[in-house]
Amino acid sequence: DKEVRAIFLRLFAQLFQGYRSCLQLIRIHAEPVIHFHKAAFLGQRGLIENDFLTKVLNGMAFAGFVSERGPPFRTCDLFDELVAFEVERIKAEEGNPPKIIKHVRELAEQLFKNENPNPHIAFQKVPRPTEGSHLRVHILPFPRINEGRVQELLQEGLARSQGAPPAARGDKKCVVPAGPPVGTFI
């Protein structure tokens, strides 16, 4: 599963490489607005006639991508590193399947480490059922749920969550690396 995700991560890094050089931050509103220059992006890459990429850039998913990843100061991740620093490596591996597979496996390993920082804790052994356990007839039926008690617990949980401060993630924010300009990819 991680290798498939790594392949798509690499594909989107190739597809959108240089997108940060076509972002413009507009600060005339109370909340900054980020604008993406589609024509400049397609023109600099020589892909103005490419219907697929044009449709991708016009889609709602890409608009969400720009609003989420456009701010110049936010938490960086593996995608940002790929777009900013691995452009030359991806270009050099084009036509060399063993190198591409090696890179995909490295990315998959990084994805796995990001999701499981403590692998020895993440995997717990589940004991095998004893022999003949499926023949037991003394298994008690599942008890009925008391609807009144469920509502009571829900109300208690809501009361506690309304008084609690919002949970804040400890992600470290940094300046997002821009990477090379779009014109260098041609």
Topology diagram in text:
Elements: H1 2-16, E1 23-26, E2 33-36, H2 38-44, H3 51-58, H4 60-69, E3 73-74, H5 78-85, H6 87-92, H7 97-115, H8 119-122, H9 147-163, E4 174-175
Can you describe this structure?
The chain has 186 residues and is mostly helical. It has a domain at 1-116 and 171-184. It contains 9 helices and 4 strands, in the order H-E-E-H-H-H-E-H-H-H-H-H-E. It has helices spanning 2-16, 38-44, 51-58, 60-69, 78-85, 87-92, 97-115, 119-122, 147-163, and strands spanning 23-26, 33-36, 73-74, 174-175. It has a two-stranded antiparallel ribbon. It has a two-stranded antiparallel ribbon with strand order 3-4. Strand 1 (23-26) and strand 2 (33-36) form a beta hairpin. Helix 1 packs across helix 5 (78-85) and helix 1 (2-16) crosses helix 7 (97-115). 9% of the residues are buried. The mean pLDDT is 81.
Q: Choose one word for the global shape.
A: extended
Rg on CA atoms, Å: 25 Å
The largest beta-sheet arranges its strands as: 1-2
Terminal residue distance: 32 Å
Percent of residues in helices comes to: 40-55%
Order of helices and strands: HEEHHHEHHHHHE
In terms of structural class, how would the helical and strand content be classed? mainly alpha
Count of helical stretches:
9
Taken as a percent bin, the fraction of beta residues is 5-15%
How is the biggest beta sheet arranged? 2 strands, antiparallel
Instruction: Give the uncertain stretches in residue-range form.
Output: none
Provide mean pLDDT, rounded: 81
Number of strands: 4
GO biological process, one term: regulation of Rab protein signal transduction
Domain UDENN: 1-76
Protein name: MTMRD protein
GO molecular function: guanyl-nucleotide exchange factor activity
